[in-house]
Amino acid sequence: MLGSGIVLGCDYNPEQWSADVWQEDVRLMRQAGVDLVAINIFGWSYLEPRPGEYDFAGLDRVVELLHEHDIKINLGTGTSSPPPWLTTLHPEILPTAADGTTRYPGGRQAWCPSSPIFRRRALALVEQVARRYGEHPAVVLWHVSNELGCHNAHCYDEETAEAFRRWLRKRYGTVDALNDGWGTSFWSQRYGDWSEVGLPRQALSARNPGQQLDFHRFSSDELLDYYRDEVEVLRRHSTVPITTNFMVTAHIRNLDYWTWAPEMDVVANDHYLDHRLAAPTAELAFAADLTRGLAGGQPWILMEQSVGAVSWQPHNLAKAPGEMTRNSLTHVARGADAVCFFQWRASAQGAEKFHSALIPHAGTDTEAWREVLTLSATLDRLDEVAGTTVEADVAVLFSWQSWWSCDGESRPSHSVRYLDQVHRAYQALRDLGVTADVLAPPRTWTGTGWSSCPACT
Ligand code: GAL
């Protein structure tokens, strides 16, 4: 897929460190047998420090350093988080929450997917990056943005409302068809004109379920459209495969990846054990099987996982000795041909300074680092597994649209949740030692009829 054998990789955020640390980093990457490094994931403020003023000196050096050490590059387009100058110049790109309040910069991904200004500025950066590195021999993969929709999938501003109406017009054709689809005769919700149709903003009671479901579909489509725009720029300058990192996981459900997957040159997923669940490793197995389903049974990339604790759950558990290796091999056994981590070196500052990394704060004389070296050697011994596929006689059907719909505001019982039910069916098979594929339902309801689903054929 990305070379021979099972690939070991990581996110690398060298902007945090001085150039002498970079030298030490590449030396240790070689020692650990790192094959693939994702860079420029959050590079925007570094590459374009002022509007329209680009500075590639730092990224050039990192690219060359990796290349000299024969390490391949998974190059981020750098657009995931807008730099402070952009949100200062154009606060209108900031996300609006369902209650009409603004979500401010200071974290990451503070942009609204339907913002034309954001898109124009982001695509201008992609153009620069693609032109500069599109034919560089070390670049073997493009990494569009980062976890699209992780924080900003749903935006409730007026620009989004306009885009939603355009999407609805395409879907329904007439206001009457929309009224029929959404059942607006109930509770006096009948629309007389497109201009009256809005977003499912926070309301006093349960909102119209048809409106909510369509808003989910629209929001997923809107980000996919954004992805396509970045791809279009990249393709003009490069023939290297393009992907973005999915979040097939229990706690994020904003994108219908069955519609996204066919547009990826290779499917990539980020997976973190979620200790809020009763059976975190069972969920890992399910997510890996589902990612294989998205990849159409072909090999896929585990783009991120953690070496030890994350820093964004209420209780961030360290991994027991061997646990990281076992989880990595679970992904490989379920079809991953690349095992990558967030991130290379633990941050000394910033929002993720308590997150584990391949090089922990305590350095390389640690059990954590020794386990990384062991994993690397183990993956090398498994090289012949690369390119092989998983055989399963049983399939569990899974659909994001069903998830959105079943977990709506008004329902028979809030104790019955879609994903729990899917997990239970999957768990029963797992208990029996039965390997299952996880596939899309063969057909989906469009509101006006059944259509076949491209991802399941
Ligand atoms: C992912 C993200 C990474 C990092 C990681 C921490 O969601 O893509 O940038 O934040 O989580 O677990």
UniProtKB/TrEMBL annotation:
Keywords: Glycosidase, Hydrolase. Belongs to the glycosyl hydrolase 42 family. The keyword Iron does not apply. GO terms for biological process: carbohydrate metabolic process. One of its GO terms (molecular function) is beta-galactosidase activity. Its EC number is 3.2.1.23. It catalyses: Hydrolysis of terminal non-reducing beta-D-galactose residues in beta-D-galactosides. GO terms for cellular component: beta-galactosidase complex. It is an enzyme of class 3 (hydrolase). Residues 392-446 form the Beta-galactosidase trimerisation domain. SUPFAM superfamilies: (Trans)glycosidases, Class I glutamine amidotransferase-like. It holds the Pfam family Glyco_hydro_42. It comes from Phytohabitans rumicis. This is beta-galactosidase. The keyword Membrane does not apply.
